[in-house]
Amino acid sequence: MPKQINYQLSAEELIQIQRAIAREQRVNVRQRAAAIHLLHQGKKPEEIASTLAVSVGSIYKWHRRWRKRGLDGLANQPRSGAPPKAGASYWRRLGEVLALGPHALGYSFPRWTARWLVAHMAQETGVRLSKSRLRMVMKQLGYRYRHAGRELLE
């Protein structure tokens, strides 16, 4: 028979959870605190998961993290991943290249396309980004796209 999990909170823990639900700035912590509160009230993990549109495993994980680290355990944890390919020097040079334009760098076309820009920056810096990544970051940097038959950058 599986081990029974005790979801009951002490008076102090209950106050902490209620404060988090009412005042916490991090939305994910507020949601997870609400799940902990519902467990305390006797709701089943399956019910809570359905209500919050998450997996039952998430409910168990949140409870386990709450027991180990309190409210900090309910916050999103850092995720691993590959470091960014392009750093500040890449983006600085990209700005310079865009300011110069393709003609100044010896190209015959009038405006940069994402394809040509990716190729030029890869040749110059050794860093090859995908066109979609380049477009996304350029949008974040305030550059706009113009469409005139094909995609052009300005």
Features:
154 residues, mainly alpha, two-stranded antiparallel sheet, 8 helices, 57% helix, rod-shaped, disordered C terminus
Question: How would you summarize what this structure contains?
Answer:
This protein is mainly alpha-helical and 154 residues long.
Explain what this protein looks like in three dimensions.
The longest helix is centred in the first third of the chain and has 14 residues, at 27-40. It is rod-shaped and about 70 Å long. By secondary structure, the protein is mainly alpha-helical. The chain has helices spanning 11-23, 27-40, 45-52, 56-69, 71-74, 88-100, 114-125, 131-140; strands at 145-148, 150-153. It has a two-stranded antiparallel ribbon with strand order 1-2. The chain contains 8 helices and 2 strands, in the order H-H-H-H-H-H-H-H-E-E.
Helix fraction by DSSP (H/I, runs of at least 4): 55-70%
End-to-end C-alpha gap? 66 Å
**Helix run count:** 8
Strand order of the largest sheet: 1-2
Which overall shape is indicated by the principal axes computed on the Cα atoms?
Answer: rod-shaped
Q: What fraction of the residues are assigned to beta strands by DSSP?
A: 5-15%
The helix-strand sequence is: HHHHHHHHEE
Query: What Rg, in angstroms, do the CA atoms define?
Result: 25 Å
**Unreliable residue runs:** 148-152
The largest β sheet comes out as:
2 strands, antiparallel
Rounded mean pLDDT score: 89
Number of strands: 2
Structural class: mainly alpha
Describe the SSE topology.
Elements (H helix, E strand, L loop, with lengths): L10 H13 L3 H14 L4 H8 L3 H14 L1 H4 L13 H13 L13 H12 L5 H10 L4 E4 L1 E4 L1
Helix pairs in contact: 1-2, 2-3, 3-4
